[in-house]
Amino acid sequence: MTDYASKSSKKMLKDGGGKAYQRDDREDRTLDYRLLRREFGKSKTGRFRDTPYTSDVDQVEYIFHKNEIHIVAMLELTRYDMDEGSLPPPSWVRYRSSLLTRYFNRDAQGKFCLKMSSLVGCPVWIVLFRKDLEAFWIFDITKNNSTWERKTQKEYSDWLSELKTNKLNELKEQENEQ
Predict the structure, then answer these.
(1) Within 28-152, where are the H helices?
(2) CA distances from 134 to 82, 138, 150, 178 (A)
(3) How far apart are CA 78 and CA 59, in angstroms?
(4) Are residues 87 and 112 in the same domain?
(5) Helix (H) or strand (E) holding 130
């Protein structure tokens, strides 16, 4: 029997205690499963019939407070491969608009995200990022009248930290009210 608790098989952790990336490669080890799973239950027309629908949440941001996990936000990630400077401004606006159309009109992805948001009690953000990871656009789909916000890598990192701070402040306010 394999000793899964041996030193050689222990998981590496980040400074905060979260699981660190465990591999040297960049292989998406779940891709084959996800592609297969989407084929299950399909009829010849491509509509699902025998299995539940499936969706994934790309990332869940969470914190620990008083040894409890609290969800801060869910992120739906999407990458764009073109240089925004190569697109005239109306095209760039149409590109981001088409993402929202896909989420809320064509696919059930937006509906799924809003349901998850209400169940978990946190916002869901679409994060559109450039392949070189130097520019990010964020959009809170759980807010009416939300707009796209452009962020540099540093601003994006600061924004994530702000999400954590805001959640901690919210939890402390709730404690003070009790």
Answers:
(1) 31-39, 89-101, 109-120
(2) 13, 13, 11, 43
(3) 11
(4) yes
(5) strand 124-130
The token pair that represents 102 in the structure block: 């896909």
SS3 19: strand
Residue 88 and residue 36 share a domain: no
Counting the structural domains of the chain, the total is 2
Q: How far apart are CA 109 and CA 62, in angstroms?
A: 21
Whole-model pTM: value is 0.76
Residue 176: strand, helix, or coil? helix
In this prediction, residue 4 has a pLDDT band, given cuts at 50, 70 and 90, of very low
How far apart are alpha carbons 164 and 61 in whole angstroms?
9
Domain that holds residue 43: 28-56
Residue 124 near residue 142, CB atoms below 8 Å = yes
Are residues 171 and 109 both part of a single domain? yes
**Is 124 part of a structural domain of the chain?**
yes
pLDDT tens per residue, range 149-166: 999 999 999 999 999 999
* Residues 160 and 77 placed together within one structural domain of the fold: yes
* Residue of 73, 175, 64 whose CA lies nearest to 121: 73
Helix (H) or strand (E) holding 75: strand 68-80
Is residue 42 a part of any domain in this protein? yes
